[in-house]
Amino acid sequence: MVGLVGILVFKSDLIIQSTPINLLLSFGLLIWTQPEKNNWFYGFIILTAIVGFGVEVIGVNTGYLFGDYSYGKVLGFKWQQVPLMIAVNWFITIYCCGIAMHTLLTKAMQKVAAKQPSKVLKTISLVTDSATLAVAFDWLMEPVAVQLGFWKWLGDGSIPLLNYICWYFISALLLVVFHVAPFSKKNNFAVNLLLIQLMFFLLLRTFLNIPS
Q1: Domain layout of the chain by residue ranges
Q2: How many CA atoms lie within 13 A of 98 on its CB side?
Q3: Is the distance from CB of 99 to CB of 187 less than 8 angstroms?
Q4: What is the pLDDT of residues 69-117, one digit of tens each?
């Protein structure tokens, strides 16, 4: 609510410039609310951060992944033209989408299936659905992030299809690790954080009159 009012009503740059603080706070709360933390959980954080940051470095400096784009100053200190905060953002997105879809599909399977599906089939379903959710979130966020100065697309400024294709496959690979790694996949805060972010970007996209 503070972010929405600050951006939509007061047109506050301070709110936008506080994005790294918001990401770090969300990151800390996700770790704090994760039950039964173990080495697999911390390993997943490190893996997601390294892979997420690495593909962004490749993308920004070569254009081979995602398309031609560059980051602005909003997300803070950059290395190799990529803000370090992007590593945190990758973890938040992948983790929240993974937890949300795991929670949803697990409850659905328990209600409708007399016989539980095989572990392989369940993993495939969870990974593909979670990756689709991650891409949907990216689609919702992209135009808003561009307008707020997080990053910009070069050329004619349009968001290329390659961006969403790469997002899907990279997310899917990370989500395979997420779903097979033996750490707890129950975190109600992660589900609520994802819903809050979805509503936040949806409202901004609506009231800032950003075209689809």
Answers
A1: 2-207
A2: 29
A3: yes
A4: 999 999 999 999 999 999 999 999 999 999 999 898 877 777 766 566 6
